[in-house]
């Protein structure tokens, strides 16, 4: 016969063992984590969701820039992303034309989202000090290499020296209907100067911890921008898109990503431009998926490290997702974003784990 004291001791020991098993066996909150989930533990801003980071987007008037902004705005409204929704994200542009273009994309693709004047700052791209004042206290930035340029009148009461001053607004990666006459060519040093001034301002702001750079199809010599990044000394994630960028004309955030994307780390060494034939022969890549990947990289990847990632369409793109009334997407910053998280972390997974989880190894 078991005494009451012995029974109490047995129950207490079982409870202690159960607690140890939960901590040692990869169980969290009563839910067993798979090996893949433990490998995908975020190392970026999502690793400390209570320390919300403020992000700014250069060239937010372009469609890709606007979509990045929209995803950041959604992520900032949800706990667990580590992205701030207070005065963030911030759109960095040269004229009010970018703000108008940005809000057209937000209104149509992000359920009537809006960027007010508090979320937009206009900069004189030739003045580093002017840029610094508009990126102070921000933790990370999204930039492009070669932007689409459009000659515009400087917005009144900003940085104009006379009522008829003109400047080049810059778009990541393109704005529908932009007038490209009388602008510097894609191989002009003007683009490198914009990039240099922006990075110098980010460094001197004193708060910048990481930058994500998207290599646009207009880029003639990627090493120019890699060298500028290395000289600036800010840890960076550099994304090369291997394939023609296309747009989903019916996109809305609740449709999520169309493609899990194949992501591979580029080996150190000289980086050559992607040939035009590659863009034509590779499967196209959706701009919306690239925008989501930019945001996911901020959440998932270590901000203290620099990396160059080559991004291509996955061999097995997803079927177009159309949410039903029963499927809730309002709790996700981007539906299916976990697929991008897996793609970003695939470089750390062993061949045995790749086989176990059925992850594509095609690059």
- Beta-strand content bin: 15-25%
The termini sit apart by: 66 Å
The overall average pLDDT, rounded, is 84
Helix content: 25-40%
Contiguous low-pLDDT stretches (5 residues minimum) are 4-38, 348-363
In which order are the strands of the major sheet placed?
5-4-3-6-9-10-14-12
**Which structural class matches the secondary elements?**
alpha/beta
Taking all Cα atoms into account, the compactness measure Rg is 23 Å
Tell me the number of strands: 14
Shape: globular
Helix-strand topology string: HEEHEHEHEHEEEHEHEEEHEHEHH
- How would a textbook summarize the main sheet? 8 strands, mixed
Q: Helix count, per DSSP?
A: 11
Describe the structure.
This protein is of the alpha/beta class. It is built from eleven helices and 14 strands. The chain has helices at residues 4-24, 35-39, 63-76, 96-109, 128-135, 189-205, 222-232, 276-281, 287-300, 337-345, 351-357, and strands at 27-28, 31-32, 55-58, 90-93, 120-122, 140-144, 148-153, 166-171, 210-215, 236-241, 245-246, 262-265, 285-286, 307-312. The protein has an eight-stranded mixed beta sheet with strand order 5-4-3-6-9-10-14-12, with helices on both faces. Strands 1-2 form a two-stranded antiparallel ribbon. A two-stranded antiparallel sheet has the order 7-8. Strand 9, helix 7 (222-232) and strand 10 form a beta-alpha-beta unit. The longest helix has 21 residues, at 4-24. The radius of gyration is 23 Å and the shape is globular. 40% of the residues are buried. The model is unreliable at 4-38 and 348-363 (pLDDT under 50).
